[in-house]
Design a protein that fits this description.
two-stranded antiparallel ribbon, 4 strands, 256 residues, single chain, mainly alpha, 6% strand, 12 helices, 2 domains
Length: 256
């Protein structure tokens, strides 16, 4: 370590990893306003934060699979925090948002734009709703960032039209509710079709359209769905969809 430098703390690494998840891969640089802002919050330089983000990239299996190495001098603590964070996302995502809210001198509700009108007034139920909503917000930001805010089927890039869809449904797989590899960035129409089993994504990341839609004579059905049959999805830069989740959707949800 160079003279004058200080070791990264556990909390600082958790905050950096929180940001890593929510930034598109191509924006992990010191000029990014969000990198600059985190640097100010934890009293570090933007270069220091950006370099730590690239350190984390070297631990990302999705990037390793594509031959992207990132910075190689990760610390033992970097590796520990990475493992802990992704092994318990239901806990770690919320805790990281609480850390961030504390530094921002605000609440996790305000940080995630959760209106008081949407929340119970007090008690355990309120805490449970807040945690669920904050985690949902984290999941959405992370999935959209992985796909560079682009629908994986159509290429639409309007955030208001995009959904962080679950491959294995939220309500049936608690352990993978916040698993970013259980998410796809998809527009609202095709998300509805995916949930209804009218389209699926095969393990080779190609799109399969149900025979129910194939039989339709509607021009709109042809335009919106059939032209995508057999095409590859637009792959995320990180957090590739887990193939076992895609297999589950094909076998249990798709209506061939």
């Amino acid at each position: 370590m160079k003279e004058g430098q200080r070791l990264w703390t556990r909390d600082e690494l958790i905050l950096a990893l929180n940001l890593y998840c929510k930034l598109p891969f191509g924006r992990l640089h010191s000029r990014n306003p969000k990198v600059i802002h985190l640097a100010q919050l934890i009293d570090r330089t933007p270069n220091s934060v950006a370099y730590k983000l690239v350190n984390f990239a070297s631990l990302d299996p999705s990037l390793q699979a594509r031959g992207i190495k990132g910075a190689s001098n990760t610390s033992i603590l970097d590796k520990e925090i990475w493992s802990e964070f992704f092994e318990a996302l239901n806990i770690s995502s919320f805790e990281s948002e609480k850390l961030l809210a504390k530094l921002e001198n605000t609440t996790v509700e305000k940080l995630n734009n959760i209106s008081e009108e949407e929340l119970p007034k007090e008690g355990k139920t309120r805490d449970q709703v807040i945690k669920a909503r904050v985690n949902q917000s984290f999941f959405r930001k992370s999935v959209l960032a992985a796909y560079n805010n682009t629908c994986c089927i159509t290429g639409i890039q309007q955030p208001e039209l995009l959904i962080a869809g679950h491959i294995r449904p939220w309500g049936m797989d608690d352990a993978n509710r916040l698993n970013i590899r259980n998410g796809i960035c998809i527009n609202a129409l095709h998300d509805k079709a995916f949930e209804a089993g009218l389209i699926t994504i095969l393990e080779d990341y190609t799109i399969q359209v149900s025979s129910i839609l194939k039989k339709s004579k509607s021009k709109e059905t042809q335009d919106y769905f059939m032209k995508h049959h057999g095409q590859s999805i637009i792959l995320p830069s990180r957090f590739l969809p887990e193939k076992t989740f895609l297999q589950y959707h094909r076998e249990a949800r798709f209506r061939p």
